[in-house]
Specification:
Elements: H1 2-6, H2 10-40, H3 44-66, H4 79-96, H5 104-113, H6 121-144, H7 153-202, H8 212-229, E1 233-240, H9 243-250, H10 252-266, E2 275-280, E3 283-289, H11 293-309, E4 313-315, E5 318-320, E6 324-330, H12 337-353, E7 359-361
Parallel strand pairs: 6-7
Antiparallel strand pairs: 1-3, 1-6, 2-3, 4-5
Helix pairs in contact: 2-3, 2-4, 3-4, 4-5, 4-6, 5-7, 6-7, 9-10
Length: 362
């Protein structure tokens, strides 16, 4: 029955729970006012109209949320609408409650409590201003229509009490919103920090590529997937030729620049499913799912070897270039990934022995 009443939609259910609580509180206030009306002799018609408008308005809000119609608006919870409507009904009740109208300030305090659910500080101030105008008008109406000879001291006292409730409630609610905002910012900062930590744990800090540990996890996953589905999987080990010479001739800073430019040049040529990692030093590993060995050789030759050979790097007004050797292997069914890597590594050494700047399939 609760699922039918509040739905199983997570966010809508939370909104309906808050709206339901507000409706129940308003219903309790209606009962109290009707009891007061019997004791103070307030006209039954006025009480009946007020009751229908008070409860009917909140039920309408509940139905708008329940049907999902309110989700097309900026505030699907209709929090501000409910609060404004409740304050207006409460101010009207002040005019009808007779000698029991002092209870309106207590009800107002309960209504202001709901301001802490999703209203901004500006909206909270607007609610307080509206409440001040509404109750000021209600008290002025009560004083003007009071029987001849009756004093207005109680109404003045009630107005003072309402000012206290409004001031205190607005301050506390605004303070709570400030704390919630600070918590949201701290949560966002924490999530950002956690994201950075995860990035650092899985990525090489120089090139931004996957590091050896993260790539090893992908190797296990992709090899199992290839074995299970029978789809091809290829690996390529890339090694920058004569990298030590770059460091010796141009300095280690130039070597770092070369590694970054190398990674940046290859990254755009890869598919979303491909994995590219710095395997160690000037050695890189490329993992290509759904690609056989011959396709990988062709890809590496055209998109990597030839492109890197044409790349020029300038550091401290000195320009230099370099080449890359590549060893490729295709994963065999149920073959440990270490063996596939070993075949690619042997192919890499074969490429270097054959004169470098080339791709060899192992």
């Amino acid at each position: 029955m609760l699922d039918w009443l509040l739905t199983t939609h997570p966010k809508r259910r939370i909104r309906l729970q808050l709206s339901g609580v507000a409706t129940l509180l308003m219903s309790a206030c209606v009962v109290v006012l009707n009891l007061m009306a019997d004791m103070t002799g307030t006209p039954a018609l006025a009480i009946t109209v007020w009751t229908v408008l008070s409860v009917g308005g909140l039920i309408t809000v509940f139905l708008l949320i329940r049907t999902g119609y309110s989700e097309r608006w900026a505030d699907p919870s209709m929090t501000l609408v409910q609060i404004i409507y409740a304050i207006g009904c409460n101010a009207a009740a002040y005019c009808l409650a007779g000698e029991g109208r002092g209870a309106a300030s207590s009800i107002l305090a309960v209504i202001l409590m709901f301001c802490s659910f999703g209203l901004s500080v500006r909206q909270i101030c607007a609610v307080a201003l509206f409440a001040l105008v509404a109750f000021g008008s209600a008290i002025a109406y009560t004083v003007l229509h009071a029987p001849s000879g009756s004093g207005s001291g109680m109404d003045i006292a009630n107005f003072g009490l309402i000012l206290v409730v409004l001031g205190g409630g607005t301050f506390v609610t605004a303070r709570l919103q400030g704390l919630r905002g600070r918590l949201r910012r701290q949560k966002a900062e924490l999530e950002k920090a956690v994201g950075q930590i995860r990035h650092l744990a899985a990525n090489d800090d120089l090139t931004g590529l996957l590091n050896r540990r993260a790539m090893s996890e992908f190797l296990v996953i992709e090899c199992r997937r290839s074995d299970r589905k029978g789809t091809p999987l290829s690996m390529a080990i890339l090694d920058i030729d004569h990298f030590k010479t770059i460091n010796d001739s141009h300095g280690h800073h130039a070597g770092d620049v070369a590694l970054r430019r190398f990674a940046d040049a290859i990254r755009p040529t890869l598919r979303a499913a491909d994995r590219f990692a710095r395997w160690g030093g000037e050695e890189f590993l490329l993992l290509l799912p759904d690609t056989d060995g011959r396709q990988t050789v062709e890809l590496c030759q055209k998109r990597i070897v030839e492109q890197i050979a044409a790349l020029r790097i300038t550091v401290d007004d000195k320009s230099f270039g370099f080449t890359v050797s590549v060893g490729v292997s295709q994963h065999l069914v149920n073959e440990p990934f270490a063996q596939t890597l070993e075949r690619a590594d042997r192919a890499l050494y074969a490429a270097k022995d054959a004169g470098r700047n080339r791709v060899i399939l192992g």
